[in-house]
Specification:
By secondary structure, chain A is an alpha/beta fold. Chain A has one domain (about 1-185): Pyruvate-ferredoxin Oxidoreductase, domain 3. Chain A is built from 7 helices and 6 strands, in the order βαβββαβαβαααα. Classes of the chains: A alpha/beta (about 180), B alpha/beta (about 400).
Chain lengths: ~180, ~400
């Protein structure tokens, strides 16, 4: 069982990201689950989304999770919420920030000693898609860190999932995924 | 017909709401009258989108309240169409008056209820308060534990409800957010196979059959009211169950997926079991399997059909156990929980020695964790070994503050 928790603000696309990832994984014959806590359900409010991946059917519907990966797609949430809650010794963090990993850990000592990678999904999204929607870049970074799938395979599948969007936006998302893949450290 | 078909992949990643919207497209609902409410909104939104995109030949009626939504469904169903809608919580509560009209007028409407808590305090998350509110309304009630089942049970609900020996409305329940907004792999049925499973809608006593005029919604005082209600109850008790079995069998033949009035997991030699509904059934199954691996003889019973209540199947599933925990996800507000009462009623005249205790959990979406369930199974094991309930009969799981126990 692979478990992922997303920290996001409502409107930044964590749910779409989690469902998109589940869709891609499902095409490879694995069982998937993607869900979210909507909290107060206001745009901009802190929220969490979740992925589970397994070889066998996933029956667990508890919201409690000790995640293998923690994605933070809004830079401020590292300070305003406890993104480390219920983590494990070997939990991997991928965090959106304009800082490098060392500066980030100095600014938030809770992350010290943890496996932390950083990438500026907000800036990448703004420069490619034209809006601060950091969900698809985070998935590009995840592909790099987890080596889950070949990036070209992943992008092909994401094209299918995003197909209802205008071609220009789909192309921009592909650029964003590739850039985050290349830039995550 | 004048609509397009959709090519679905064998497995689509859908949440419970989208799965239901797809089922409503595939059976070609003639009329949906709806007043959207969280967390069921995407169901009727999905139907409206399929309709606007030319995948359905039907009509979407926007109304001013849930009371009007069900009233519109009643009118359309009496006129002779295949009719469905969806609601949750406060919307369901507002529909209650018309639910009794729909069942009393013997109209085979399908209502998807995405279970959610009832205010106050206001809460959009999942519990079974609305589901319990509907249990005396004369509707058939199916309960789905995941998105796949929400999809599958819609086809079964239409097939049963529209049978001319039944002609009663049916609800398909799923847990708000935990199922409705949780995407999982759903094995699809092709458009043709799905439509053919349910078949073409065959109206009966429809108002648009102008050659055979009928009256719907009449007044019947003490001279005939009782006979109508008794007949409705009789049909629920005697006619519905065989049709459900037939529909389950036909569905298994089509898809390989087998449904039962009462679902049993790891029950063959179980000494201890929890009985519950909704997504909790699946979490409990996972915990039961873990405890099995450690040598504990534990199982899970899920109620698939809430009404008509599967009295005989519940007895068969539970009578040989040593301890039973009945889990209710709705505040009984001054009584034991519904499942506790129904199970006690079913077992009372048997020679069972099972110790039965009741638990209230998960109100307003409060998480039911695997840790809760491990503790629960262990507590039930203590009851089994003692041959009696060693706690108070009613306890609360997962509520903050001092432990609550009554009776």
């Amino acid at each position: 069982m692979l478990e992922i928790r997303w920290h996001s603000r409502a409107g930044q696309g964590a749910v779409t990201g989690a469902k998109g990832l589940a869709d891609v994984v499902s095409t490879t014959g694995k069982e998937v689950q993607a869900f979210a806590f909507y909290g107060s359900a206001k745009r901009g409010a802190a929220m969490t989304a979740y992925n589970r991946v397994d070889e066998k059917p996933i029956k667990n519907h508890e919201k409690y999770m000790n995640p293998d990966y923690i994605f933070v797609i809004d830079p401020a949430l590292v300070y305003t919420t406890d993104v480390t809650i219920n983590d494990k010794e070997n939990t991997t963090y991928i965090i959106t920030t304009h800082m490098n990993t060392k500066e980030l850990i100095e600014s938030q000592p809770k992350l010290a000693g943890k496996k932390v990678y950083t990438v500026d999904c907000i800036k990448i999204a703004q420069e490619t898609i034209g809006r601060a929607i950091p969900n698809t870049p985070m998935l590009g970074a995840f592909m790099k860190i987890s080596k889950m799938y070949d990036i070209e395979f992943f992008k092909e599948n994401m094209k299918r999932i995003l197909a209802k969007l205008p071609q220009k936006i789909v192309d921009a998302n592909m650029l964003a995924i590739q850039r985050a893949y290349d830039e995550v450290k | 017909m004048a609509f397009d078909k959709l090519e679905l992949r064998d497995i689509e990643v859908w949440d419970g709401n989208l799965a239901v919207a797809q089922a409503m497209r595939q059976v070609q609902i003639d009329v949906v009258a709806a007043y959207p409410i969280t967390p069921s909104t995407p169901i009727v939104e999905g139907y409206a989108k399929f309709l606007a995109d030319g995948y359905i030949e039907g009509e979407f009626v926007m109304v001013e309240s849930e009371h009007a939504a069900m009233s519109g469904c009643i009118g359309a169903s009496a006129a002779g169409g295949r009719v469905a809608t969806a609601t949750s919580s406060q919307g369901f509560a507002l529909m209650v008056e018309t639910l009794y009209q729909a069942s009393g007028m013997r109209l085979p409407i399908v209502l998807n209820v995405v279970n959610r808590a009832l205010a106050a305090p206001l809460n959009v998350n999942g519990d079974h308060s609305d589901m319990y509110l509907g249990r005396d309304s004369g509707w058939i009630q199916f309960d789905a534990y995941n998105a796949q089942e929400a999809y599958d049970l819609n086809f079964i609900a239409f097939k049963v409800a529209e049978d001319h020996s039944v002609r009663l409305p049916a609800m398909v329940h799923q847990d708000g957010f935990l199922t409705s907004h949780t995407a999982q792999g759903v094995k699809t049925i092709t458009d043709d196979a799905a439509y053919n499973f349910v078949g073409e809608f065959k109206p009966m006593n429809d108002m648009l059959d102008l050659d055979h005029p009928v009256t719907h919604g009449v007044q019947a005082e003490e001279d005939w009211h009782f006979e109508h209600k008794a007949r409705q109850h009789r049909d629920l008790m005697l006619n519905v169950v065989p049709r459900i079995h037939e529909a389950f069998d036909a569905f298994e033949k089509l898809t390989g997926r087998k449904y039962n009035m009462v679902e049993q997991y790891n029950m063959d030699d179980a000494e201890v079991a929890v009985v519950c509904m909704g997504s909790s059934v699946e979490t409990a199954c996972e915990v039961a399997q873990e405890l099995r691996d450690q040598g504990m003889k534990v199982g899970v019973v899920g109620i698939r059909v809430i009404r008509p209540f599967p009295f005989k199947e519940v007895i068969d599933a539970l009578k040989d156990l040593k301890a039973i925990g009945a889990l209710d996800r709705s505040s009984p507000n001054g009584a034991p929980g519904m499942l506790f009462n129904e199970i006690a009623g079913a077992l009372f005249n048997t020679d069972t020695k099972a110790a039965l205790s009741g638990y209230v959990y998960g109100l307003g979406g409060r998480d039911l964790t695997k840790e809760h369930l491990r503790d629960l199974f262990k507590e039930l094991k203590v009851n089994a070994d003692a041959g009696k309930v060693t706690t108070q009969l009613q306890q609360f799981i997962g509520v903050r503050g001092p432990k609550l126990a009554f009776l």
